[in-house]
Amino acid sequence: MTKPTALVVSAHSADFVWRAGGAIALHTQKGYEVTIVCLSYGERGESAKLWKQEGCTLEHVKVERKKEAENAASALGAHDIQFFDLGDYPLEMDREAKFRLVDVIRQVQPRFMLSHSQDDPYNTDHPYATKMALECRMIAQAWGHNPGEKVLGAPQLYLFEPHQTERCGWKPDTFLDITDVWDKKRAAIECMEGQEHLWDFYTNVAENRGNHFRRNSGGQAGGRPARYGEAYQSLFPRTVDEL
Ligand SMILES: [Zn+2]
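Above are the sequence and the zinc ion SMILES. Below is the predicted complex in C-alpha coordinate form.
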Protein backbone atom coordinates (compact mmCIF):
# COMPACT_ATOMS: atom_id res chain seq x y z
CA MET A 1 0.00 0.00 0.00
CA THR A 2 1.33 3.45 -0.82
CA LYS A 3 1.85 5.77 2.09
CA PRO A 4 -0.13 8.99 2.56
CA THR A 5 1.86 12.07 1.64
CA ALA A 6 2.09 15.78 2.42
CA LEU A 7 3.94 18.67 0.81
CA VAL A 8 5.42 21.76 2.45
CA VAL A 9 6.27 24.81 0.34
CA SER A 10 8.73 27.00 2.23
CA ALA A 11 9.88 30.37 0.87
CA HIS A 12 13.22 30.19 2.66
CA SER A 13 15.14 27.24 3.99
CA ALA A 14 14.26 27.70 7.67
CA ASP A 15 10.59 28.66 7.50
CA PHE A 16 9.33 25.08 7.53
CA VAL A 17 11.10 24.48 10.82
CA TRP A 18 9.56 27.25 12.94
CA ARG A 19 6.12 27.10 11.34
CA ALA A 20 5.45 23.47 10.47
CA GLY A 21 8.17 21.36 12.10
CA GLY A 22 5.64 19.77 14.45
CA ALA A 23 3.25 18.85 11.63
CA ILE A 24 6.12 17.33 9.65
CA ALA A 25 7.38 15.22 12.57
CA LEU A 26 3.89 14.21 13.69
CA HIS A 27 2.68 13.08 10.27
CA THR A 28 5.95 11.25 9.66
CA GLN A 29 5.33 9.43 12.93
CA LYS A 30 1.84 8.58 11.67
CA GLY A 31 3.29 6.97 8.53
CA TYR A 32 3.14 9.88 6.07
CA GLU A 33 5.90 10.68 3.63
CA VAL A 34 6.42 14.42 3.96
CA THR A 35 8.23 16.29 1.19
CA ILE A 36 9.62 19.79 1.75
CA VAL A 37 10.37 22.25 -1.05
CA CYS A 38 12.53 25.24 -0.12
CA LEU A 39 12.14 27.79 -2.89
CA SER A 40 15.27 29.64 -1.70
CA TYR A 41 17.86 29.35 1.05
CA GLY A 42 16.94 32.69 2.59
CA GLU A 43 20.55 33.48 1.85
CA ARG A 44 20.22 37.25 1.50
CA GLY A 45 17.39 38.10 3.83
CA GLU A 46 17.35 35.57 6.65
CA SER A 47 21.01 34.87 7.33
CA ALA A 48 22.17 38.02 9.12
CA LYS A 49 24.37 36.15 11.60
CA LEU A 50 26.37 34.51 8.81
CA TRP A 51 26.77 37.81 6.94
CA LYS A 52 28.32 39.38 10.04
CA GLN A 53 31.27 36.98 9.70
CA GLU A 54 34.22 38.55 7.89
CA GLY A 55 34.74 37.57 4.25
CA CYS A 56 31.33 35.95 3.99
CA THR A 57 30.11 35.19 0.45
CA LEU A 58 26.72 34.34 -1.01
CA GLU A 59 27.93 30.83 -1.89
CA HIS A 60 29.13 30.23 1.68
CA VAL A 61 25.79 31.35 3.11
CA LYS A 62 23.89 29.05 0.75
CA VAL A 63 26.05 26.06 1.66
CA GLU A 64 25.57 26.70 5.38
CA ARG A 65 21.83 27.27 5.07
CA LYS A 66 21.42 24.10 3.01
CA LYS A 67 23.30 22.07 5.62
CA GLU A 68 21.15 23.49 8.44
CA ALA A 69 17.92 22.78 6.57
CA GLU A 70 18.97 19.22 5.71
CA ASN A 71 19.85 18.57 9.35
CA ALA A 72 16.51 20.00 10.46
CA ALA A 73 14.58 17.92 7.90
CA SER A 74 16.34 14.81 9.08
CA ALA A 75 15.64 15.65 12.76
CA LEU A 76 11.95 15.85 11.80
CA GLY A 77 12.12 12.61 9.81
CA ALA A 78 11.02 14.24 6.54
CA HIS A 79 10.94 11.93 3.53
CA ASP A 80 12.55 14.39 1.12
CA ILE A 81 13.78 17.97 1.00
CA GLN A 82 14.33 19.76 -2.30
CA PHE A 83 16.03 23.10 -2.86
CA PHE A 84 14.94 25.17 -5.85
CA ASP A 85 17.60 27.88 -5.26
CA LEU A 86 15.49 30.64 -6.84
CA GLY A 87 17.00 33.48 -4.83
CA ASP A 88 15.36 35.52 -2.06
CA TYR A 89 14.60 39.15 -1.27
CA PRO A 90 12.98 39.07 -3.70
CA LEU A 91 11.87 35.51 -4.37
CA GLU A 92 10.76 35.14 -7.99
CA MET A 93 9.52 32.19 -10.03
CA ASP A 94 9.48 32.07 -13.81
CA ARG A 95 7.34 29.69 -15.89
CA GLU A 96 10.01 26.98 -15.82
CA ALA A 97 10.30 27.11 -12.03
CA LYS A 98 6.51 26.95 -11.69
CA PHE A 99 6.36 23.84 -13.88
CA ARG A 100 9.11 22.33 -11.75
CA LEU A 101 6.94 22.80 -8.66
CA VAL A 102 3.93 21.40 -10.55
CA ASP A 103 6.00 18.29 -11.33
CA VAL A 104 6.79 17.85 -7.63
CA ILE A 105 3.13 18.31 -6.66
CA ARG A 106 2.03 15.71 -9.21
CA GLN A 107 4.73 13.27 -8.15
CA VAL A 108 3.94 13.64 -4.45
CA GLN A 109 0.11 13.76 -4.84
CA PRO A 110 -0.17 15.28 -1.35
CA ARG A 111 -3.17 14.70 0.91
CA PHE A 112 -2.55 18.20 2.19
CA MET A 113 -0.18 21.07 1.53
CA LEU A 114 1.36 23.62 3.87
CA SER A 115 2.60 27.11 3.05
CA HIS A 116 2.70 30.69 4.37
CA SER A 117 -0.01 33.23 5.21
CA GLN A 118 -1.56 35.09 2.28
CA ASP A 119 -0.29 38.43 3.51
CA ASP A 120 2.87 39.53 5.30
CA PRO A 121 3.93 43.18 5.03
CA TYR A 122 7.24 42.36 6.75
CA ASN A 123 8.24 39.70 4.31
CA THR A 124 6.72 39.71 0.84
CA ASP A 125 8.58 36.50 -0.10
CA HIS A 126 6.26 34.57 2.24
CA PRO A 127 2.88 35.42 0.65
CA TYR A 128 4.56 35.15 -2.75
CA ALA A 129 5.45 31.52 -1.97
CA THR A 130 1.82 30.86 -1.06
CA LYS A 131 0.62 32.47 -4.27
CA MET A 132 3.00 30.20 -6.18
CA ALA A 133 1.87 27.13 -4.22
CA LEU A 134 -1.73 27.96 -5.11
CA GLU A 135 -0.95 28.65 -8.73
CA CYS A 136 1.02 25.41 -9.09
CA ARG A 137 -1.71 23.48 -7.25
CA MET A 138 -4.14 24.84 -9.85
CA ILE A 139 -1.90 23.90 -12.79
CA ALA A 140 -1.38 20.42 -11.31
CA GLN A 141 -5.18 20.00 -11.39
CA ALA A 142 -5.42 20.90 -15.09
CA TRP A 143 -6.07 17.97 -17.42
CA GLY A 144 -4.49 19.94 -20.25
CA HIS A 145 -1.12 20.28 -18.49
CA ASN A 146 1.15 17.41 -19.59
CA PRO A 147 -1.78 15.18 -20.61
CA GLY A 148 -1.39 11.57 -19.53
CA GLU A 149 0.08 12.42 -16.12
CA LYS A 150 -1.99 11.82 -13.01
CA VAL A 151 -3.77 15.09 -12.22
CA LEU A 152 -3.98 16.43 -8.69
CA GLY A 153 -7.13 16.04 -6.55
CA ALA A 154 -8.03 18.84 -4.13
CA PRO A 155 -5.63 18.79 -1.19
CA GLN A 156 -6.27 21.30 1.57
CA LEU A 157 -3.78 24.15 1.76
CA TYR A 158 -3.02 24.97 5.37
CA LEU A 159 -1.41 28.35 5.96
CA PHE A 160 1.14 28.16 8.72
CA GLU A 161 1.75 30.78 11.36
CA PRO A 162 3.49 34.03 10.33
CA HIS A 163 5.79 35.90 12.68
CA GLN A 164 3.32 38.62 13.61
CA THR A 165 -0.12 37.16 13.06
CA GLU A 166 -2.28 40.27 13.52
CA ARG A 167 -0.45 42.20 10.79
CA CYS A 168 -0.74 39.35 8.30
CA GLY A 169 -4.51 38.86 8.22
CA TRP A 170 -4.02 35.32 9.45
CA LYS A 171 -6.68 33.68 11.60
CA PRO A 172 -6.10 30.10 12.69
CA ASP A 173 -9.00 27.63 12.49
CA THR A 174 -7.01 24.46 13.18
CA PHE A 175 -4.84 23.57 16.15
CA LEU A 176 -2.51 20.59 16.02
CA ASP A 177 -1.23 18.91 19.19
CA ILE A 178 2.50 18.40 18.65
CA THR A 179 3.39 17.47 22.25
CA ASP A 180 4.51 13.94 21.26
CA VAL A 181 7.02 15.26 18.75
CA TRP A 182 8.06 18.48 20.48
CA ASP A 183 11.58 17.12 21.17
CA LYS A 184 12.05 16.61 17.43
CA LYS A 185 10.82 20.10 16.60
CA ARG A 186 13.09 21.67 19.21
CA ALA A 187 16.03 19.62 17.84
CA ALA A 188 15.21 20.89 14.33
CA ILE A 189 14.95 24.46 15.63
CA GLU A 190 18.42 24.12 17.14
CA CYS A 191 19.81 23.13 13.72
CA MET A 192 19.12 26.74 12.69
CA GLU A 193 22.33 28.06 14.18
CA GLY A 194 22.18 31.27 12.16
CA GLN A 195 18.90 32.28 13.83
CA GLU A 196 19.49 31.44 17.47
CA HIS A 197 17.55 34.59 18.47
CA LEU A 198 14.35 32.79 17.36
CA TRP A 199 14.72 29.50 19.24
CA ASP A 200 12.98 30.56 22.43
CA PHE A 201 10.51 32.79 20.62
CA TYR A 202 9.12 29.81 18.70
CA THR A 203 9.18 27.58 21.76
CA ASN A 204 6.98 30.17 23.41
CA VAL A 205 4.64 30.23 20.38
CA ALA A 206 4.31 26.42 20.60
CA GLU A 207 3.46 26.62 24.31
CA ASN A 208 0.79 29.25 23.65
CA ARG A 209 -0.71 27.20 20.82
CA GLY A 210 -0.71 24.19 23.16
CA ASN A 211 -2.80 26.29 25.52
CA HIS A 212 -5.19 27.15 22.68
CA PHE A 213 -5.47 23.47 21.77
CA ARG A 214 -6.47 22.72 25.37
CA ARG A 215 -8.91 25.61 25.43
CA ASN A 216 -10.61 24.61 22.19
CA SER A 217 -10.65 20.87 22.80
CA GLY A 218 -12.07 21.06 26.29
CA GLY A 219 -8.72 20.00 27.66
CA GLN A 220 -8.73 22.82 30.21
CA ALA A 221 -11.52 20.89 31.89
CA GLY A 222 -9.39 17.81 32.40
CA GLY A 223 -8.95 16.32 28.94
CA ARG A 224 -5.73 15.60 27.07
CA PRO A 225 -3.06 17.95 28.41
CA ALA A 226 -1.52 19.21 25.14
CA ARG A 227 1.62 21.16 26.04
CA TYR A 228 2.81 22.20 22.58
CA GLY A 229 0.83 23.08 19.50
CA GLU A 230 0.92 24.53 16.01
CA ALA A 231 -1.85 26.62 14.48
CA TYR A 232 -3.05 26.71 10.88
CA GLN A 233 -5.58 28.51 8.76
CA SER A 234 -7.24 26.30 6.17
CA LEU A 235 -7.90 27.94 2.84
CA PHE A 236 -10.49 25.65 1.29
CA PRO A 237 -13.84 24.49 2.66
CA ARG A 238 -14.15 21.04 4.14
CA THR A 239 -16.57 18.56 2.61
CA VAL A 240 -18.27 16.49 5.27
CA ASP A 241 -21.07 13.99 5.74
CA GLU A 242 -21.77 14.97 9.30
CA LEU A 243 -21.06 18.03 11.43
ZN1 LIG B 1 11.16 33.20 5.56
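The pocket of zinc ion is lined by residues 11-12, 15, 42, 46, 123, 126 (CB under 6 Å).
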